[in-house]
């Protein structure tokens, strides 16, 4: 199974900046043996998609609404994204925290994304408080069971373990999870997936690590048996830095 390395640019980069990044980035990874995804902001998607066309870089959305159309001021439907995106991030911790998306809404978005043929990346993860209270496994299982409710076809499903405590806003003593911490969580996630689906299906679903992956720690994290790639934040904003993470997946 190829590793999947996805860039989440969050609320960064204009359309022109996205094009400039991709012009620099594409030659650096043209021979990479990994699936590469870049997820720009909505306003940069069209420019990014044009620049990435014909390369081994795929484009994804950071979020989407679950309805195809309607009175949802300021939101974006899957039909509006299909021309530009192959992937979609669903349930990122910032959507959960800042925009109050609960597991039921995330489940609706995931069902919609898969129905429309997107390769969906479902994010799950615990906060520092939950981890301190030994609730990690309870939180992960709850998010997975509720988020995957009603999902039957997993061919386009990826899960990203995103410990909120391992990113800058999640913990005043923030640091990336150790490779062993990350692997332990990935093993548990795969165990839950086996319970929801079956053992064979669980083995085929890629599980990414998404907590402060960067060139300095990517190689050791990606060497772990159950870590199938990365969802990269800050380190993906610089072309050379993100290329180093991609190369670590070889």
CATH class: Alpha Beta
CATH superfamily: Aldolase class I
N- to C-terminal distance: 11 Å
Write down the overall mean pLDDT: 95
Domain module count: 1
- Indicate the radius of gyration in whole angstroms: 17 Å
- The coarse overall form would be globular
Low-confidence stretches: none
In terms of topology, how is this protein built?
Layout: E1 4-8, H1 15-29, E2 35-39, H2 45-52, E3 57-61, H3 78-81, E4 87-90, H4 93-98, H5 103-115, E5 119-124, H6 128-132, H7 136-147, E6 157-161, H8 179-196, H9 199-204, E7 206-209, H10 215-222, E8 229-232, H11 239-247
Parallel strand pairs: 1-2, 1-8, 2-3, 3-4, 4-5, 5-6, 6-7
Describe the structure.
The chain has about 250 residues and is an alpha/beta fold. It has a single domain, classed as Aldolase class I (TIM Barrel, Alpha-Beta Barrel), CATH 3.20.20.70. It has eleven helices and eight strands. It has helices at about 15-30, 45-50, 80, 95-100, 105-115, 130, 135-145, 180-195, 200-205, 215-220, 240-245; strands at about 5-10, 35-40, 55-60, 85-90, 120-125, 155-160, 205-210, 230. β1, α1 and β2 form a beta-alpha-beta unit. α1 runs parallel beside α11 (about 240-245).
């Amino acid at each position: 199974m190829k590793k999947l390395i996805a860039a989440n640019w969050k609320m960064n980069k204009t359309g022109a900046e996205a094009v400039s990044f991709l012009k620099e980035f594409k030659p650096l990874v043209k021979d990479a043996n990994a699936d590469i995804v870049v997820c720009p902001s909505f306003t940069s998607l069209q420019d990014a998609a044009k620049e990435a066309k014909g390369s081994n870089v795929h484009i994804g959305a950071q979020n989407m609404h679950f309805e195809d159309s309607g009175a949802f001021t300021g939101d974006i439907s899957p039909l509006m994204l299909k021309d530009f995106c192959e992937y979609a991030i669903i349930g990122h911790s910032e959507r959960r925290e800042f925009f109050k998306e609960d597991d039921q809404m995330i489940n609706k978005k995931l069902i919609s994304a898969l129905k429309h043929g997107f390769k969906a990346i479902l994010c799950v993860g615990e906060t520092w408080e939950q981890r301190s209270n030994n609730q990690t496994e309870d939180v992960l299982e709850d998010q997975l069971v509720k988020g995957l409710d009603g999902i039957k076809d997993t061919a386009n499903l990826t899960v990203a373990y995103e410990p909120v405590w391992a990113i800058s806003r999640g913990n005043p003593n923030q640091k990336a999870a150790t490779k062993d911490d990350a692997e332990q969580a990935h093993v548990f996630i795969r165990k839950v997936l086996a319970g929801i689906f079956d053992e064979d299906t669980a083995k085929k679903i890629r599980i990414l690590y998404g907590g402060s992956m960067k060139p300095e720690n990517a190689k050791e994290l990606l060497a772990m048996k159950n870590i199938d790639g990365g969802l990269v934040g800050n380190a993906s904003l610089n072309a050379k830095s993100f290329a180093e993470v991609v190369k670590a997946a070889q």
